Amino acid sequence: MSDPIIRRFGFDAVEIEALTWGDPGDPAAILVHGFPDSAWTWDVVGPALAAEGRYVVAPFTRGYAPSSLARDDDYSLGSLVADIVDLHGAIGADSRTILVGHDWGGAIASATSSSHPELFDRVVLIAIPPLPTIVNLFRPARLPANLPTLLRQAPRSWYMTVVSTPWLSERIGRRLVTTLWRLWAPGADVGEYQRRGLEALGSRKRLRAAFSYYRAVWNPWYRRTRAHRKEQRFAFDSPRNPTLFLQGAADTCGLERTGARALEDLPPGSRRVVVPGAGHFAHLEARYLLGKLLGPRTFRNPRRTEQHLINRLAITAALENFTAFLGHFVLNCSWDRYGADPDMTAIFRWHGAEEMEHRTVAHDVAEYFDPRYWRRVQTMLVVFPLTVWISSRFVWYLVKNDPNAPRSRLRVLYEVIRAGRLGLLPTARTVFGSAFDYLKPGFRPDATGSMAQALSFLATVETRAKAA
């Protein structure tokens, strides 16, 4: 990860500091952070875009340190859009620019595309649908149909009431920010980003500035300057650039269904993508799902680094116990009898045979470095519930996106149990049995299934491939 170059830009009402990566001569990408975050949220995306030939500029929006407070005290959406337009001009960008926004940055990006589409080639919105999609949820004609969604969204938007309340919100602001990070990124390793966000909002004046973003939207008497009338007037119109809208399927801030009709408010060439397993910080969380467990990490103490590597080996060994179990299942399941596609069945069985073939590698290496039985128990106690949770979330995601599948969770559970009885899916008993087998003191992976069967299948596939 390359370190950014920090630049500072002076505009009429504010000074904006930004992190930059890449060559200033390349087409630009402007990345706008949200609340309660900072420009450091892009410290992985920024270098990646720079490597693809983009000059990346990630500003700290007005009020967020180290950018200045607004001299005109205007934190309306129009003023935030004007800052992006001014930044676009200050870096000498052209119409090839990509505009990316997360959370409040997404709202700013949506409004900027509405009023100044000529400045950008494409737009990416993360976590927040285009602003007209939100407005349309409250339109009287659509209210009866949207009421269930609004009622489910309301408990997730409680914080907006808090930040819109002057004086009180500033007093409890830091605790509120910490709470929101915990609620919006459960289980994700985002501690460094939370710390950076708290630094950016490190005083009551800074908190008041960030909270004023919300107050300017909800308060019709909010004092706005006349300098940004165009930006304010078009702010809630539809974006006019092709837009990619990313949502985390597990977002605890905004419901997935809140943005379900986003494409109706976006121009041709736009897409909506729901990221399985990701929450509100989809650009951060998806890469942490397994990276937190298996990703490289170093410590000052060499012994801790060694233990971390051994932990990764142990986790991989536990995971491979399940992949070997699944490999044995697909080699012996009853899919053929129920009309499964023969090509897809062959692909699954090839993968299953491959998993069976190397089922002992990670286990043997992990046992060599740390043969303690308790290590194996600890690892399985972590890996088993995590595997079940990820698998269930993935299944439910597939079901929700299958127009022919039942929508009731109880009905889906019934179908899963029924499929297990028919031999189409592993049963709960065999899944738990696989975990308990792993916990036996004398466990060896080669006790799972038959290596001869796996090698025989692979040999058959190779023979067919040569004949073809």
UniProtKB/TrEMBL annotation:
The keyword Hydrolase applies. Keywords: Hydrolase. It comes from the Bacteria. It comes from Nocardia cyriacigeorgica (strain GUH-2). It holds the Pfam family Abhydrolase_1. Residues 30-285 form the AB hydrolase-1 domain. Gene3D superfamilies: alpha/beta hydrolase. This is Putative metal-dependent epoxide hydrolase. The keyword Ribosomal protein does not apply. GO terms for molecular function: hydrolase activity. Transmembrane segments: none annotated.
